[in-house]
Amino acid sequence: MPESLLDKLNDEQRAAVLTTDPHVRIKAGPGSGKTRVVVARAWYLVSQRGIDPARILAITFTNKAANELKERLAAAGVGPSEGEAGHGGGGQVLAKTFHGLGCYFLRKAASTTPGLGINSRFRVLDAEQSERLIRRAIEEVDLEQLQAAGQGGERDMKGRPDGAASVTTHGLATPLANTDVLQLAQRLADLFSSVKTGMAAIGFHDDDRAIEEAVKRGVDGMDGSRGKSLGDKPQLPSRFESAAVAARWYRGMVQKYFCMYRRLLLRNNAVDFSDLICLPVRLLDQHPELVAAWRARFDHILVDEFQDTDPAQYKLVRQLKGPTTSLFVVGDPDQAIYGWRGAEVSNMSIYLPRDFPDTKTHMLSINYRSDPAIVKAADRVLCANGPSDLYTPAVPARAPAAGRGVATTLHVYPDHKDEAYHIARLIRGWMESGEMRAETAAPAAAAPLLAAAAAATAATRAAAGQRQRSARAGAEAAGEERGAARQASGNPAAAAPREPRWREVAVLYRNRDLSRPLEEAFTRSGIPFTVVGGQPFWQYKEIADAVAYMHVLLDPLRCDVFLERIINEPKRSVGDKSLLSMRDAARAAGMPLSQLIFGDCVRPEGATPPPRPPIEALPRGPADLAALAPGIGPDSPLKAVKLTKAAAQGLQELRGLVLFLRDEALRGTRMGGLLQACLTLSGYEAVLKALEVEGKGRKLTAKSKKDVSQDASERLERLETLTEFAGDPDSWIADDSFADDAGGLAASAAAASGSGGAAARDAGLLGVARFLEHAALVTGELGDAKGDRNAVRLSTLHAAKGLEFERVFIVGLEDSILPSPRSPMDEERRLFYVGLTRAKDQLFVSYCKVGAL
Ligand SMILES: Nc1ncnc2c1ncn2[C@@H]1O[C@H](COP(=O)(O)OP(=O)(O)OP(=O)(O)O)[C@@H](O)[C@H]1O
């Protein structure tokens, strides 16, 4: 393989790979072999130029791309072999996403750099967790303002005067319902991210002036270029005399929320996704010794999908790049589709050649993927964006496909239901006619497997909430397979059907809403499908709850955002009123809520836990837990909190649970075991099991058609998937940032394993920390957990980036949908271009006369 790697490149690709220029920019059109070039470059540097692999840093945009890169490097002999931790030590290329790299950097830096406010066991909050914390920040600011205004008395859950949720500022009270807090938090999440990125990019990190300025820029940026307006913001007081005053007020509030949010992050020993880039940038700005150490580490930095970098990411690359480090970036400005989240295509088109004037540009223009008609159609869409320096017309490598019909067609339908129905019919037709079936018949023994595959597809669909219907459809599909096979021949050996290639078909759309009619039509037609970019697995409530329990277990004294999530989940009588009283007590005592609750009962990290009780004394459920924790001491501020008897009992059970599980972790119990024990002992599983039995025939809500029992069994299924996953560390430890420096966790895990032996990689608190890091870093990318099922892909255009399919449908080409009025037209064209160029053989684009769903 290694010798032939260069032989597999075309002239353009080879010239790029073999370059000796220090700064190289590769403009790679769709289907032109970007990944092939990055892999070949790393291989070439190591095997032909004798570079130590550990002196190469490869940065990708998604975990999927990072994994693919690592696999291909391993296959080419320059990556970690199977089972090895890919941490870049021991002569391995360090291949990370930007966020993975930031996390790796911060874990190392947090233990040696004072003043960061987090330790090296910091946790990474995913988008949903950050939003939760922002909601808490809004509530805290609100409360501070109320207290400053001298308003007390009865309060609701958020500490506001009962029944009158309000944001009070400068004497102006504005009704702000809980739904508005939710909305505001969503908007602030985007805004805070752009504020942080802005501050990092210009090198202002901490002082109030810098924050004020960055907030102003962020707010103004949202108003203009991102298509949102101040008027969009929830419940702006109507009595401001002018828009300018309203804007000033809003900025002032945003700044307060921002500062409070940062305080809460530290209190939770947490960073959010933007921090993973912005904190390393800040540390490198402020600590020249870190810059020197990191720059000395790499001779070569390779960056994939460079067009999607934001200003802070680009700055990080420059900070890590020493004067003699070579920079090799690959990207396609014509596929830049993330402007809405801060990506700057100018990093590739303008700033790189400006910052490194000797930058050499290579063009990869040969498209190996698509039929020439598709290449031509896509190019025409792009040309409408006007001239660009880095544009070269794509050259199709393939000849037009013979006998496959027209490569590109436009369809018009009356409405989206009809559109979905016709697409389903077409796809079924292809499979039934044998046109899209595997070339060779599956071996006879595989027939049951085929049925299993169809049923498995249906079962996976169940995870998205359509279990019974899909299962029926899957079973029908499988039945049809068997029927067709029986008919085909009386010979049992020849009865094996050729497998339909469902996975080679994709339906792409601009908005997620458009998947609904498609899902319905496909379910009715028995077409196995998977929704990419649907609800990510990690964001299902029960999964997020289980993860929150593990966070509490890992760091029980700094975990408020997770503790509040599970304090009454499952119900243990610790309701809103109790929580509010405890929050007050914690505030008065100047400590986090988590410390108030667990401060006197959990053992610190390095402590030796008592021996495990004999089997008969082990707890079996919530009722056994209370006795495990010591009673609340007379000096504890918790003692003064007035709780009902039931709430006090519930709290004591939670204390017992956390103490027990943490002791188990300190004894070296492995991650999968801890998770299972938590779900059993907390009663979480039992509650769902009871609902599964008792909820038959009851609807979840008046509106929802879903049955309580069905919902419970789907949740249980997902929890089962999670525990299985947790019990298989190879699937989540490959690339964690604890590899070199576990901040004491490795030592405690080793100690826990006893007799000086090496602890399992997933043992104890280190195992928990590794698991949680994986969960946080992949959380946004897991719409379609594995992506390897044989099913039609339903996907947003954004989520289809980097993928390819034989036949692609792009639906909903209507003015209000694609192009979206909320995004600049040139970016919408690029998005369309990305969609078009996913197709290898056939492309179907459609719009409806009545666009509304
Ligand atoms: N030199 C080559 N000879 C033959 N096939 C090639 C060559 N280079 C790339 N390919 C094939 O072209 C296809 C597209 O490559 P790849 O997926 O790397 O494209 P890409 O540049 O990442 O595309 P996009 O940006 O559209 O996602 C792959 O199937 C790949 O194997």
TrEMBL record:
CDD domains membership: DEXQc_UvrD, SF1_C_UvrD
Catalytic activity: Couples ATP hydrolysis with the unwinding of duplex DNA by translocating in the 3'-5' direction; ATP + H2O = ADP + phosphate + H(+)
InterPro entries: DExx_box_DNA_helicase_dom_sf, DNA_helicase_UvrD-like_C, DNA_helicase_UvrD/REP, P-loop_NTPase, UvrD-like_ATP-bd
EC primary class: isomerase
Annotated GO CC locations: nucleus
GO terms of biological process kind: recombinational repair
Residue ranges of domain UvrD-like helicase ATP-binding in the record: 7-371
Binding site for ATP: 28-35
Protein name: DNA 3'-5' helicase
Keyword DNA-binding among record annotations: yes
Keywords in alphabetical order: ATP-binding, DNA-binding, Helicase, Hydrolase, Isomerase, Nucleotide-binding
Residues annotated as domain UvrD-like helicase C-terminal: 372-802
Disordered as annotated region, ranges: 148-167, 463-497
SUPFAM superfamilies, per the entry: P-loop containing nucleoside triphosphate hydrolases (SSF52540)
EC number: 5.6.2.4
Low complexity composition-biased segments: 463-477, 485-497
Pfam families: UvrD-helicase (PF00580), UvrD_C (PF13361)
Organism: Gonium pectorale (Green alga)
Molecular function via GO: 3'-5' DNA helicase activity; ATP binding; DNA binding; hydrolase activity
Family to which this protein belongs: Belongs to the helicase family. UvrD subfamily.
